[in-house]
Amino acid sequence: MSFLVLIVDDEEGIRRSLGDILEDEGYEVLAAETGREALSLAREENPDLVFLDIWLPDLDGMDVLEELKKAAPHVPVVMISGHGTVELAVKATKIGAYDFLEKPLTLDRVLLTTQRALERRSLERKYDFLLEDIASQWQLVGESSSIAELRHQIDRLAMSPSRVLITGESGTGKELVARLIHEKGPRRNEPFVPVNCAAIPHELIESELFGHEKGSFTGAHERKKGKFELADRGTLFLDEIGDMSLQAQAKVLRVIETQEFQRVGGNRTLRVDVRIIAATNKDIAEEVKRGNFREDLFFRLNVIPLHIPPLRERRDDIPLLVEFFLSEISRQYGRQKKEISPEAIEVLRNYDWPGNVRELKNLVERLIIMSSNNRILPSDIHPLSPGSQDYFSLRTLKEARDAFERDFILKKLQENNWNVSRTAEALQIERSNLHRKIKAYGLS
């Protein structure tokens, strides 16, 4: 990869000698004599690194540094000066300079500084691309009236600090909605910490949420921060909150009320600033009546209720979702995007999707991997879509048995929100055995 370096200095000899050194190392070089020229070039050419003299004929180098950092905060700027002082170096660092070099410049120091600054720039670029890639996967796809209203609600909720309770069937996208609320709000640059309350054993949920001190219980070999602590100043997403034990509910209620807690086995009170978004596929009001959920916690969490409709209630969004998954999954796997026939789309529209959007995504992923043609037809979908298999059309008993077993396991995984432990218990098989079958049948 070729890097572009901008040299800003009023001495022609410095510009020429520094430029020759960098060009010999394979870098592209631009040069500017004044601060205004430097700012203009920086806007037009987007350099990867800037060497900036403090003393310029038109503008103060510190002012130019401030403008450069405002326009491109990630671009490293190395200050150079023949009259450097500790005070100047400290001031430049506070403004955002990457390094401070004194004239006369030495070859080794220039090359080492350039290498390290550009390595840092490369890492930041990769980080930016990674964020863009992650952001592309968290999109609310659809044009139905229910999704349009959901987008409107998310935009309004994002800027509010209020607690939100998201309800909806498994696979509808509750975590996606929680992430969008976080990303669109003032806490977007702080952590988003998800916790699946159903996936954590009851005896460990308090340690996961609040952390623990070394030696507080068997196996606690070191101090561990809990999810509340990790989410400080950000958002804590409590998924499947309806599966949390009553004991843990009581402690969560106290944290909501006071924003204070103690680690398991600790006696020091910790204070956090956390926005809580909770989600469940259960009827929490009914769970309250049954005594399985604290009424006071329900009222605390349910400040703003948000319901996500199941996929069968927005069938018009299925073609858009399929196109989105075909593009995203093909890109992730480095494969050519497949087309899907209108007849195949109609098959998908007529299916009830008990696993909702998650089930549709899994099906598209299997079609991309398993279908040998570049065009997906109805015949490709029927054997893969759970519940639509014609077992009597298969040739052998083994094929029919394997097809049924795969569909049955998939259905049970969906019913248990893809919790392997609970699914294994429901199927009355060992968890290790279930893991092997999941891998063998390509379920994800």
Describe it for me?
The protein has 444 residues and is α/β, with parallel strands linked by helices. The protein has 4 domains: 4-134, Response regulator (Rossmann fold), CATH 3.40.50.2300; 145-309, Rossmann fold, CATH 3.40.50.300; 314-385, Helicase, Ruva Protein, domain 3, CATH 1.10.8; 389-444, Arc Repressor Mutant, subunit A. The protein contains 19 helices and 14 strands. The protein has helices at 12-24, 35-45, 61-71, 86-95, 107-137, 145-158, 174-183, 205-210, 227-230, 246-258, 284-289, 295-301, 318-333, 342-349, 356-370, 378-381, 397-415, 420-427, 431-440, and strands spanning 4-8, 28-32, 49-53, 77-81, 99-102, 164-167, 192-196, 235-239, 260-262, 269-271, 275-280, 304-307, 339-340, 375-376. Strands 2-1-3-4-5 form a 5-stranded parallel β-sheet, with helices on both faces. α2 runs parallel beside α3 (61-71) and α17 crosses α18 (420-427). 31% of the residues are buried.
Assembly type:
single chain
How many domains? The number is 4
CATH first level of the largest domain: Alpha Beta
Largest sheet: 5 strands, parallel
Strand order of the largest sheet: 2-1-3-4-5
Write down the overall mean pLDDT. Answer: 87
Given the C-alpha coordinates, what overall shape results? globular
Beta-strand segment tally: 14
Strand content: 5-15%
CATH homologous superfamily caption of the largest domain: P-loop containing nucleotide triphosphate hydrolases
Which CATH architecture of the largest domain would you pick? 3-Layer(aba) Sandwich
Kindly summarize this structure in a few lines.
By secondary structure, this protein is α/β, with parallel strands linked by helices.
